[in-house]
Amino acid sequence: MKKIVSVSLGSSSRDHAYTTELLGEKFEISRVGTDGDVNKMVELFKKLDPEVSAFGMGGGDIYLRPGNKTYVLREPYKWSKAAPTKPVCDGAYFKAVMEPLVIHNLFQQGFLKKDMKVLVMTAVDRYFLAKAFADEGCRCVFGDMPFSLGIPLGVTGLGTIRFLGTTLLPIITKLPYHWLYPLGSSQEKMKNKPNRFFAWADVVAGDLHYIRKNMPWDMKGKIICTNTTTKKNLDEFKERGVKAVVTFTPDMNGRTFGANVLEAVFASILGKSPKETTEKEYQDLIGKLGIQKPNIVML
User: Fold this and answer.
1) 143 closest CA partner among 128, 130, 162, 159
2) Distance separating alpha carbons of residues 279 and 121, to the nearest angstrom
3) Bridging pattern class, strands 203-205 and 139-142
4) Residue whose C-alpha is closest to residue 239's, from 261, 215, 210, 264
């Protein structure tokens, strides 16, 4: 049996375990939250290394890929090196392939349509998701400046995202990670205030915690495209009037795991690190596992 453990800086209240069979082999997949405790994350990487086939890193991006360049975040990269022998996967390479496949599938089905207004919460870390919406003819706003930097200006072009990546990421990647992303109990805080970017959008896509933190009470008729959803999250969206939630990974016994988990599963099957895995290898394995179709939950 292969054992996959996602060690997350998020809340332990979101922990989950799941056993399944993939390509004739059993997998034990689990998520362990550390409530924002970096030292606990590091210790778990060290302690569990002999037991696991591969790790996921939840709540922490190691790599950002806004276009053809890859940037390494200093702190998460350092934490990942605590695992002496096993790969630690943040999902960046898997997302770059999986998320566009799901989005294009949604358009082929007619579930999403050209000219829809799409808010992508942050395009620097989900560039290929943002590009998929743009390629399908959607009117897009990328929320990197208002939601990550606190500057109330939406970005509408991928060229600007690439420029921001080139100019700002060499600095941002060296900042303390908790400045950039909500950790532990802070993930549970929600502003619930009117927001003009959310009000404008038909579709809101990106990281679940960024969406939850910033979304207003009124989300009537909107479609959410995200991941790592729990039943509690679906109930929250329904309460606010969300029409449907689409996740990029399949439901696993009442929860959708993050891209870091699936990337770790793929690493264990292919026997190579995410950076060494080609786009075609990802696409072929996604096809073999039959997970390219979106998971749609109507609320």
Assistant:
1) 130
2) 24
3) unpaired
4) 215
Domain boundaries, the chain: 2-93+258-291, 94-247
Residues 35 and 40: their CA atoms lie apart, in Å, by 9
172-197 residues labelled b (16+ CB within 10 A) or e (exposed): bbeeebeebbbbbeebeebeeeebeb
DSSP state of 136: T
We find that the CATH architecture of domain 2-93+258-291 is 3-Layer(aba) Sandwich (3.40)
Tell me the pLDDT tens digit for each residue of 105-114: 999 999 999 9
Of the candidates 128, 132, 126, the one whose C-alpha atom is nearest the C-alpha of residue 148 is: 126
pLDDT at residue 270 greater than cutoff 70: yes
What kind of architecture, by CATH, is found in domain 94-247? Answer: 3-Layer(aba) Sandwich (3.40)
The closest alpha carbon to 203, from 233, 263, 153, 244, belongs to 244
Which secondary structure element, helix H or strand E, spans residue 28, and what is its range?
A: strand 25-33
Q: Which of 240, 188, 56 is nearest to 224 (CA)?
A: 240
Q: Confirm whether pTM is higher than 0.90.
A: yes
Tokens encoding 11: 């809340």
* Equal CATH topology for 2-93+258-291 and 94-247: yes
Output the DSSP codes for 5-24.
EEEESB-GGG-EEEEEEETT
